[in-house]
Specification:
TIM Barrel; globular; four-stranded mixed sheet; 34% helix; single chain; five-stranded parallel sheet; alpha/beta; binds zinc ion
């Protein structure tokens, strides 16, 4: 069974957990570690001969075009993570359209190929922002991977379909790749990667992937950020919950990723797009 590996390419100071401490206008003043950390991931994937989807932030692409070219030239899929990492429910429809248009242009100019996959900052496509899917379709995207079928203070649509599906709205269609959950005791437990992967023991992650692959016969969709494999990143003082979300078990991410690469097959999301949309 093939699974999907997705990397959200952003730096440690751009995350939603610290957005109340660090403004977008100050991003340029931080020590950048995104190139080096993404390179480490590229090297690991090369070692295991795995191709992935890299959802790159437009801002990162503008500043480090060489990195994005390298991701593309290594045979990975480059997709969009928007331009400025703003949560969709804090944007107007026009602001969202401008943000994703700017990101798409920057990425396409850089790699010289079409971008058609999207992931929202912090999975911020929720029931109230489903209109974002209409704008994504209008702007030429054919798939989205922003819906997390869980309860969370910042995101989530617990009743949403847990597996890849096609969403039809106003006569148009878009493929959705929701982040993976493990259905247990009638609840959707988030197991898709990131902070959840750092928090959960490896055996539990494997149990969840095996259950999704073997019992439910569906692909597992894993995500990770380059800053998650960098225990030595400069520390930002946030609220206690932000600190837990960002730094919890940060040393475990790289070995866990490597263990999953050893045990399972992964490919980019683009290769899961069904022919019927
Ligand atoms: Zn992000």
């Amino acid at each position: 069974m093939d699974n999907a590996l997705t990397i959200d390419v952003e730096d440690y100071y751009m995350v939603s957990s610290f957005a109340d401490k660090i403004s977008y206008d100050d991003w340029g003043s931080f020590e950048s570690r995104v190139e080096r950390n993404t390179q480490t991931i590229l090297n690991l994937l090369d070692e295991y001969k795995v191709k992935a989807t890299f959802f790159v932030l437009g801002w990162v692409c503008n500043k480090y075009p060489k990195l994005v070219k390298e991701i593309h030239q290594a045979g990975h899929e480059v997709a969009s993570h928007g331009y400025s990492h703003r949560l969709i429910y804090n944007l107007t429809r026009n602001e969202f359209r401008e943000d994703i248009r700017r990101a798409k242009e920057s990425l396409e100019d850089t790699i010289g190929a079409e971008i058609y996959g999207f992931r929202a900052a912090s999975y911020s496509i929720i029931r109230e922002t489903l209109w974002a899917l209409d704008i994504l379709m209008e702007e030429g995207y054919i798939y989205d991977s922003s819906i997390f079928p869980v309860h969370h203070d910042r995101y989530g649509m617990p009743d949403s379909d847990r597996f890849p599906h096609t969403i039809s709205r106003n006569g148009a269609k878009i493929q959705e790749f929701p982040l993976s959950t493990y259905r247990i005791f009638g609840l959707n437990i988030p197991v898709a990667g990131g902070g959840y992967m750092r928090l959960l023991p490896l055996y539990f992650m494997k149990k969840a992937i095996n259950s999704i692959n073997k019992a439910e016969k569906k692909p597992f969709i894993l995500y990770l950020h380059p800053w998650e494999i960098d225990p030595n990143q400069p520390r930002i003082k946030g609220t206690w919950i932000s600190n837990i979300r960002h730094y919890q078990n940060i040393k475990s991410a790289y070995p866990k990723l490597e263990a999953l690469l050893k045990g399972y097959k992964f490919k980019p999301l683009a290769e899961f797009i069904s022919d019927d949309i």
